[in-house]
Amino acid sequence: MLGKTILVCTNDRHVARSLTAHLRGAGNEVVVADDATAARDLIAARAIDLVVVDEAGAAADAGPHAVIDAAADVVPVVALVARELSAAVVDLVCARGVAHVLARGDDGAIAPRDVVTTVEKVLRGELFGLDKYLPGFGVEISELEVRGALDRDTAVECIGDHAEWLGAGREARRAVESVVDELVTNAVYDAPRDADGTARYAAVDRRTKVTLRPSEHVTVRWGGDGDVLVIAVSDPFGALEPARVRERLRACLSGGDAIEHKAGGAGLGLYTVLSHCARLAINVDRGVRTEVIATIDLRRRGHGARGATALHLFFDDSRARALDAGAAPTTIEVCESLRVELRERLAPSRRKTEVVALLQPKRAEAPAVRARGSSPPPQAEPIGADTARGLLHGAMDPDAAIGIALRFLAHHHHAAVAYAVEGDQLVARARSGRVRDWARLREVELPRTSTAAVAALATRGETTAFRPLRPADARLAMLATGDADATAHVLPLGVAGELRWVLYAAGPRADAPVSTELVDAVRRELEACLCRLDPEEPVIEISVS
Fold first, then answer.
1. How would DSSP label each residue in 385-409?
2. Cβ neighbours for 120, distance < 8 A, ≥ 6 positions apart
3. Around Cβ 374, how many Cβ atoms within 10 Å?
4. What are the pLDDT digits (tens) for 215-241?
5. Chain centre distance of CA 407
6. Does 333 have pLDDT greater than 70?
7. What is the pTM of this model?
8. Which contacts qualify for 158-163: CB closer than 8 Å, 24 or more apart?
9. Contact call for residues 414 and 436 (beta carbons, < 8 A)
10. Which of 281, 275, 333, 354 lies closest to 312, judged by CA?
11. What are the C-alpha distances in Å from 436 to residues 351, 406, 446, 475?
């Protein structure tokens, strides 16, 4: 759950209703616009985070291309098309820079789960992993390490046998083997780079059996449920460039000379893979990793088999983002209140949703209406990391955000306590889980200069795990969990460089272990939320007349 805002541009009510339900189920707000002018205004105002454009149900006033062009270099675009994917790819991916194209089915239907998967990968920045394209729980994933060209035939035969074991016919097996052969060949010969970025084996004849260095080995993973087989081939170089992919797609699909005349190979790999699979996703973190994921229909039957129905290009540069993290911002962040107002003005909701609190009887008077973007009714139950991060994106005040974090910590620890920084003191303000003696714990004085770990480790600015070594630590652990030796986590929270809160979670639960890295990831999400919500931070409100 991210709490992002997605614009669905369509005048097809069925598509709007289906996508709205599925995207909201992932924790997002959805705005539907059947008017291209309103859609362009929302994009220009940066009131949305991503736009889904339905080509078949596009607004009649300007068409889908007007919205797609308006979104270029502003927000990501997912295009739904009602034509052959090859024609859509040449038009949208190659000519207009769209990264995600999904074709409707023969009956005109869309696949909402494919849209949700694409949207969540884009918004979360979590590009890698074939599990996102597998049908669901229970599918076994296999893995093979390719150390050089000699292992290519082994991978092809092994995965082909697996497809046949799942019930694939001869045509489906040939498709699987062709895809594996092309993807592994590209990863072995085209991906490796020298220190200066030169492609090491690009000009080497494919009959030459090259051997990769240990740090360059290719990973092949696959899994299927009998209807589809998903194959992922990953290399540690991240050398594939967006312009290169679009160049090869245009050459292969536009009807021109699809063969690239070069010493190493014919350059038909991408075209071959696209022609054999139902869905192709290319994930690239520049200079770090490339992963190509192909989904193959195992139930294809001769002339009745459809071609590819979806193409996705995910490109990221995590190293550049890390370098830019401390740089001065180059854009102005529009506050959430303005975003909500812009959405309501430009694409007003036709129906307000009435929310009746669960676990309470209905009252005779009209139920309360929850404003869009507000937080859901509070709950005391512990929550996992993904739920916590999603709720933090929708939190409307600092106390609610702290409460969400405490519920997450209580899922993995017996006790969780939030200390507010008040002058030179840490004051216990809230708790979650089973704190043994809350009354006495609140009375414990904790100066910021104390040697107690809760205060001393807070200066590090990162989540730290520790075991009580000082009497003050043992006393806090005893009051919190009843065990003076209970290990704990300290989570400092700063706003604008100033320490505001310190969270203390003690007594790890054996039934729900958690790593310090995951706790710190939630801490960073919480810290970003507090920076957005803290009342002492200035907020610029812009009035729209």
1. HHHHHHHHHH--SHHHHHHHHHHHH
2. 2, 26, 126
3. 12
4. 999 999 999 998 999 999 999 999 989
5. 23
6. no
7. 0.61
8. 159/220, 159/222, 159/229, 159/231, 162/222, 162/224, 162/229, 163/224, 163/229, 163/296, 163/298
9. no
10. 281
11. 47, 16, 19, 12
Amino acid at 216: E
Residue whose pair of structure tokens reads 């610029």 in the numeric block: 540
Q: Are 234 and 289 in contact (CB under 8 A)?
A: yes
> From CA 177, how far away is CA 184, in angstroms rounded?
11
End-to-end CA distance of the chain: 33
Q: Which two three-digit tokens encode residue 221?
A: 């993973």
**pLDDT computed for residue 420 by the predictor:** 93
Q: Once rounded to an integer, what is the mean pLDDT over residues 376-399?
A: 75
Strand-strand pairing, 77-81 and 100-103: parallel
User: DSSP state, 423?
Assistant: T
Q: Tokens for 180?
A: 């594996």
Would strands 77-81 and 50-54 be described as parallel, antiparallel, or unpaired? parallel
**13 burial via Cβ count (<10 Å: 0-12, 13-18, 19+):** exposed
Could you tell me if 5 and 31 are in contact, meaning their C-beta atoms sit under 8 angstroms apart?
yes
Question: 373 and 4 in contact (C-beta within 8 Å)?
Answer: no
Please name the amino acid found at residue 17: R
Residue 295: predicted pLDDT: 94
